[in-house]
Amino acid sequence: MTTREHILSRALRARKNTGSRGAVVPCDRHRALVVDDEQSIVMIFQHQIEQELPDLHVDSASNGLAAVEAFSKGHHGILVMDLSMPIMDGRQAFEEIARMCEARGWEMPSVIFCTGFAPRDFLEKVVQGHPERQLLLKPVGGDAVVKAIEQRLPHRLS
After folding, report:
1. Cα–Cα distance for residue pair 133/130, rounded to 1 Å
2. 64 contacts 90 by C-beta, under 8 angstroms
3. Suppose 67 and one of 42, 48, 61, 144 were both cysteines; which one would form an S-S bond, judging by CB atoms 3.0 to 4.6 Å apart?
4. What is the pLDDT of residues 16-40, one digit of tens each?
5. 3-11+37-152: what CATH class?
């Protein structure tokens, strides 16, 4: 088992954990985090999501490190994340968020990877077989992002 597979496996076990640490802490059902180094994309996605899903508060980050920091404070229910970014890419941010969720006993959020760069090995392990995750290839409009979010949140919004 590779390091990535091990991290993801631990994160999934933590999500299902109801052992001595108690039940897994659920994500904030009313928060989303949009992560992209292109500010125009962040603004388009954020505006479209807020217009179509007014009960969902949208935060943003311009790189993976800022995403990890924002997630640590907000425990967002859904992430819309680019993969190719400076400072920390989306793959590294996803893995760090998975480790954080495991360490804190937090539920893993749904993740929509929205990118023009799709490393096949990573996506096969992370997206396939996980309906709470999806890949959208750029260029993509805000309407497709909203639809992907809606498919992952109905069971979470109360």
Report:
1. 6
2. yes
3. 61
4. 444 445 689 999 989 999 999 999 9
5. alpha beta
Residue 131: predicted pLDDT? 85
- State the pLDDT confidence band at 13, using cuts at 50, 70 and 90: very low
Read off the tokens for 94. 């996803």
CA triplet 128, 130, 131: central angle to 5 degrees? 110
AA identity, residue 111: V
First-to-last CA distance in the chain? 38
Could you identify the residue written with the tokens 């890419």?
89
- What's the pLDDT score for residue 29? 86
Looking at residue 26, the DSSP 8-state letter turns out to be: P
CB 127, CB 113: distance < 8 Å: yes
Q: How far is CA 130 from CA 7, 22, 41, 103, 124, in A?
A: 15, 24, 25, 21, 10
